[in-house]
Each structure stands twice: as C-alpha cells, then as structure tokens.
Amino acid sequence: MSKPKTRWIVIFIILVALQLIALGYSPSLDATSTEGIDKSDTAWMIVATAMVLFMTPGLSFFYGGMVSVKSVISTMLQSFIALGIISLLWYLVGFSLAFGESIGGLIGNPATFFAFKDVGLSVHPALSPTVPLMLFAFFQLKFAIITPALITGSFAERVKFTSYLIFMCLFSLFIYAPLAHWTWHPDGFLRKLGVLDFAGGTVVHMSAGFAALAGASILGKREFKFHMPANIPFIILGTGMLWFGWFGFNAGSALSSSGLAVLAFGTTNMAAASALITWVMFDALVGRKITAMGACIGAVVGLVAITPAAGFVNIGQSVFIGFAAALISNLAVYYKQKTSLDDTLDVFPCHGVGGIVGMLLTGVFAKDVGLIYGQYTTFLYHLLALGVVGIFTFGGSYIIFKITSAIINLRVSPEEEKLGLDISQHQETLQVS
Q1: Residues 163-217: pLDDT tens digits?
Q2: Is 125 strand, coil or helix?
Q3: String of DSSP letters for 345-379
Q4: Which long-range contacts does 128-136 make (Cβ < 8 Å, 24+ apart)?
Q5: pTM value?
C-alpha cells in the first residue's frame, strides 16, 4: 500500500479538528420551545428541504447520463460528494457568511452562527419568523450544495477530482456565500436595492453559469471531445428527480404553507412544461430530430428560468418565461458549438443564459413593480445586478481556478483522460453488457 500524500494527511487533520469544534460548540437545545412556530409552515418546510436535497442526486444522474461511458461514475460523484463537503462547510462557517449579521451588506459575520452557534429550534424574526432557524439553515444548505455541483458539467471528463474538491470549497465560501448574502439577507445590498430573486436564479444558476464559463475557459478543450451519451435513461431519470425536487426549491422558498407557495408550485410546473415543448418543437422546426435529451434539457432550462420569478408572476407569464428561455438557450447551445469553448454539458448556455433570461423577465413581469406595470426601477436594478454578479462570479471563479491550479494541477494528464476518469481517478468502472 502506497503512503498517503501530504495533502491527504493535512485534509484528515482538518477533518479531525472539525470534529473537535463540533463537540466544543454543541449547545443544548430545548425541543419543547414552540413560541412563534407555525406547525403547517414547519411541516411543509421539512418536506421542501428534503425535496431540494433530492435534486443533487437527480443532477448526478442527469449529468452522468450525458458524458462518455468512461467518466460516468466520476461525473456522478462530483455532484454527490457535495452533499458531504458543503454540509460540513455550511455548518462550520458557510451559513454564517451567508446569513450572519451583515457587514456592510456584503458578507455575514462569520462569528454570528459559527458552528451553528445559536442555530436552534426557535424562530428567527428576520430569517425564519414561523419556522425554527435550524430548519431554515438546512433548507438554505441544499441550495449551497447543488450550486457547485451544477458547475461540474462544464469541465466534465478532464478535471482532477482532488482539484475539484479544493475549488468547490473555495467557491462555496468566497463566491456562493457572498451572493446569497447580497440577495437574500435582509440587509444584503442587492436585496435593499430591490433586486428580486425568489429562489435562486441569480444566486444559484447565474453564479454556476458564469463559474462554468471560467472553468471551461481555463481547462481548455478535451482531447476526445465527441462521444455518445453513456445512458439516455439516466438523463430522463435525473430530469424527473430534478423536476420533482424543484417544487421544493421554488415553492419552499415561500418559507410558508401558503398561497404564495401554491403560486410558485404552479409557475414552476408550467414554465418547465412550456420550455420542454418549445425546445423539441424548435429542434424539429430547424430540421433536427426530436430527442429525449433535448426534451430533458428543455425542461431543465424552463425550471432554471422560472426560479427567480416563481413567486412574482402569474401562470400565463410563467408559460412565456419557459418559452423564451428555451428558444434563447437552444440558440445559445447551437452557437456555442461553433466556438472553441468546450463547456462539456452546456452549463453556461443552459443554466447561465436560462438564469439571465429568468432574472430579466422577472424585472419585466414582477407583480406591481415590473416593466409591464409602468415601473422601470426594478428592471434597471436587475440589469445592474446582472453586470455585478456576472463580473464577480466569473472573475472570482477564474481566480479560484488559478489558485487551485497552483495547489494541484486542475487537469488530468492526456493518458488519464484517454483512460477515462472512472478508472484514472477512482479505480471504478461502469459495467455495461
């Protein structure tokens, strides 16, 4: 057996230290304290939180089915491993950076909820007025988990697994947490400007899209770019899991068992349905075959686009948002293929562009404050937020990729890439008959 490399010794020491912190910061909890808790809201939010967690395994199948047969396990694990790593980071300091006491509207005080200090079973008047703060923290954790997992599609089949782990941790702390604070904390500067993001179009999908663009730019083209998707049924299964979980993603963001949650549930379904049909019909219109993969991608693009708008628009408007996002993202995928950018699974054209379309159309249709109501302030601030988030996320992610590369090579060797990441990174294979 080979000796462990120094970096793994360091990582294990950090893990042991985390256990000591966890034991030292374990407060006693009064499970009988129910003041201010709404039981129906709490019951719904427990369900919604579990549904959002289910999306990350769904993404694992969605991405895993798209790559070559030699990299299915590695691609799926890149999503699945986030369930563990981001949970620990969120517990230690991530939640505090995102939702702790605001420092200038830019970041949360890391000491506010360090190691879940004061994150208990009572309500929080600003963050979770009718459900326990601990439940709110775990609901938000699921968003933090899936965001770096989304990015992996851009550099699939050529990234070294250990370098991805480093990138994921740095991205979560220095990109995701500030964006969540800006947008969702009551004192975040984008929220105070009036920028609307109901469930993560900006925080999750735009950030993942721009980070994916940076990653694909730095890692360059694959040696063996063209392949047949390994497993189309995996893609369909993953899409179904994502669609199901997205009801928790969007309707759960109402933070209540209410009419607002019902509205977000309905707009989520209709935008996905509209985008699915639009994608496959547009493919047929321009002479391409109607495919299962196209239908699945279309549905996901609709889900992405409705996310920032889900609680702010009506059903008819959600149908149009799905239609517009599918058309624009379909064209973006087509024209991206004519460039030298190797975004393996089209993360930027689908999640990035879909998030942008949804964000801008939120500024158009949002009830009482959108352009169609004669108001322009919200739309202009959304344009500003698009620029700020795009520059911050692309630039910050680019720097983080460079830092990661200085610690350990980002990319596998040509020999490892030819062999496939399943064998070269994990010594595992997908058995196919």
Answers
A1: 999 999 999 999 999 999 999 999 999 999 999 999 999 999 999 999 999 999 9
A2: coil
A3: T-HIIIIIHHHHHHHHHHHHHSTTTSGGGT--HHH
A4: 128/255, 129/36, 130/36, 130/37, 130/38, 130/41, 130/42, 130/255, 130/256, 131/37, 131/38, 131/41, 131/42, 131/45, 131/255, 132/37, 132/42, 135/42, 135/45, 135/46, 135/49, 136/45, 136/255
A5: 0.94
**Is 220 in a helix, a strand, or coil?**
coil
Q: Residues 6 or more apart from 397 whose CB is under 8 A from it?
A: 151, 171, 175, 210, 211, 214, 215
- The one-letter amino acid code at 174 reads F
Q: Where do the DSSP E strands lie in 94-184?
A: 102-103, 107-108, 123-124, 128-132
State the DSSP code for 288: P
Domains parsed from the chain with CATH numbers:
38-425 (1.10.3430.10)
Which residues, listed in sequence order, are joined to residue 123 by a DSSP beta bridge? 132
Q: Residues 20-53: pLDDT tens digits? A: 777 777 666 666 567 889 999 999 999 999 999 9
Structure tokens at 269: 């379904």
Residue 230 sits at the vertex; the CA angle it makes with 272 and 224, to the nearest 5 degrees, is: 110
Q: Is 273 exposed, middle or buried (0-12, 13-18, 19+ CB in 10 A)?
A: middle
CA distance 151 to 363: 26
Three-state secondary-structure class, residue 411: strand
Distance CA 230, CA 140 (A): 32
Residue 231 contacts residue 64 (beta carbons within 8 Å): yes
Look up residue 136 and give its amino acid.
Answer: F
Beta bridge partners of 102: 108
Q: Are 268 and 251 in contact (CB under 8 A)?
A: yes
Closest CA to 137 of 196, 203, 87: 87
Q: Provide φ and ψ at 257, rounded to 5°.
A: -90, 90
Residue 247 corresponds to which amino acid? F
Check if the beta carbon of residue 293 is closer than 8 Å to that of residue 229: yes
Residues facing residue 159 across a β-bridge: 411
The token pair that represents 383 in the structure block: 């344009």
Report the distance separating Cα 351 and Cα 334, nearest Å.
Answer: 15
List of E strands, 29-163: 102-103, 107-108, 123-124, 128-132
Count CA atoms within 13 Å of residue 228 on its CB side: 3
